[in-house]
Amino acid sequence: RILVEIRKGMYGLPQAGRLAYDKLVKHLAKYGYQPAKCTPGLWMHSHRPTTFTLVVDDFGIKYTSDEDLQHLLNAIKAEYRCTTNMTGSLCCGIKLTWDYAKRTVDLSMPNYMATALERFQHPTPTRPQHAPSRYTPPSYRQKGPQMATPIDTSAPLSDAERLRIQQIAGTFLFYARCVDPTIRVALSSIAETQSKPTQATAKAAHMLLDYLATHPDAIIRYNASDM
User: Fold this and answer.
1) 3-state DSSP call for residue 95?
2) Strands 104-108 and 94-99
3) Beta strand pairing status for 219-223 and 94-99?
4) What's the pTM?
């Protein structure tokens, strides 16, 4: 018999993420850190004011003193190798531009849209598109129920076209959640039909890409709360 002890995660192992997370929880607990009970991804200390977010292997740390920061860094480095970015300008692929005087932070994803549009071979439209999806105006004088959109009777797409629709929905979902909420409704409508997309779905996806090509670099700003 051959006994094998696995000391690191195995690529492709479904349980690898869970095993790594459980190990991290157990290790940081020795230093007083634990995940928040009601907010996934948020960690707190038992008595220090330090909090941090954890997404895969990216830590976003909020601290009030250098001593508190060093305490967390020492806890992490006791078991893991890590690098630090003291400017806090990048986290999870999102660029963070801080203005401490105005108490704001701008989130953006430079070059993300250009790379995505190039992947889908979508050129800049000759006519600017300023709406991510079609607008269905309500009929205020009509009695009875109103259909938000007419029933789709257009032809279904091929398997290759269906895969492209699914890739579009997946690629821009992260972008929408992080920096551009204006495309969430359009993405939701496309995602609803991505398992059985039609020509209407393709037109909606094309309109969305035209909009993103017209407005490629979204920036969302958050202001500090006085609460």
Assistant:
1) strand
2) antiparallel
3) unpaired
4) 0.80
Residues of the chain with pLDDT under 70: 1-11, 146-149
What confidence tens digit (pLDDT) does each residue in 43-101 have? 999 999 999 999 988 999 999 999 999 999 999 999 999 999 999 999 889 999 999 99
Strand intervals (E) in the chain: 33-35, 42-45, 51-55, 58-62, 90-91, 94-99, 104-108, 219-223
Per-residue pLDDT, 19: 86
| Edge-to-edge order in the sheet of strand 90-91 | 90-91, 94-99, 104-108, 219-223
| 221 strand-pairing partners | 106
**Could you say which DSSP state residue 192 is in?**
H
What Cα–Cα distance (Å) separates residue 176 from each residue in 113, 167, 171? 11, 14, 9
Element (H, E) at 112: helix 112-119
